[in-house]
Amino acid sequence: MNKKIVENFVKATNSRDWENVLLLTHDNFIRRSSSPPFEIIGNMALVEFHKNELKTFPDLCEKIELIIEENDLVATRINFLGTQRGSLGNFPPSNRILSASFNCFFRIIDEKISESWVEYDNLYGLVQLGHIKLD
């Protein structure tokens, strides 16, 4: 059951169905990460985050590679695929494709996503986009 909620959330995000994203998340949703933004509080703020992300990667699509459910937690490995057409922080558009997988954990309460933890490899992404060169 909880896996389906997360699958629907990713599908809604991919289709830019912000109304459905709001329906699938609690109003006081919290997204945590060790990368900026470190915390997003509220499902409206989450939608704004995704809209801003689309300014950088307008063709962005996420695909669930792995999904595991345990009680109220759902663990996922998700592939992020998109072309950097806008600025990424201080980095200008590269027009390169970023394909990177990240780990995301979701807590489901009362059939809605209440919080998530998202971790990804920023260095790998910046190298792929040509912003950093490793020798």
Ordered list of secondary-structure elements with their pairings:
Layout: H1 2-14, H2 18-24, E1 25-33, E2 39-41, H3 43-56, E3 61-70, E4 73-83, E5 97-109, E6 112-119, H4 122-128
Parallel strand pairs: 1-6
Antiparallel strand pairs: 1-2, 3-4, 4-5, 5-6
Helix pairs in contact: 1-2
Structure description:
This protein is an alpha+beta fold and 135 residues long. It has a single domain (2-128), classed as Nuclear Transport Factor 2, Chain: A. Helices cover 30% and strands 40% of the residues. The protein has four helices and six strands. A six-stranded mixed sheet has the order 2-1-6-5-4-3, with helices on both faces. A hairpin with a 5-residue loop joins strand 1 and strand 2 (39-41). Helix 1 (2-14) packs antiparallel against helix 2. The mean pLDDT is 97.
Summarize this, please?
By secondary structure, the chain is α+β, with helices and mostly antiparallel strands.
Topology-level CATH name: Nuclear Transport Factor 2, Chain: A
Termini Cα gap: 46 Å
Question: Regions with pLDDT < 50 over 5+ consecutive residues?
Answer: none
CATH class: Alpha Beta
Largest sheet: 6 strands, mixed
Structural class: alpha+beta
Q: Using the 3D structure, state the CATH architecture.
A: Roll
Mean pLDDT value: 97
Spatial order of the strands in the main sheet?
2-1-6-5-4-3
- Give, in order, the helices and strands: HHEEHEEEEH
Rg of Cα set: 15 Å
Would you count the extended β strands for me? 6
Strand portion = 35-45%
Summed up, the domain count is 1
Principal-axes shape call: globular
Number of helices: 4
Residues in helices, as a percent range: 25-40%
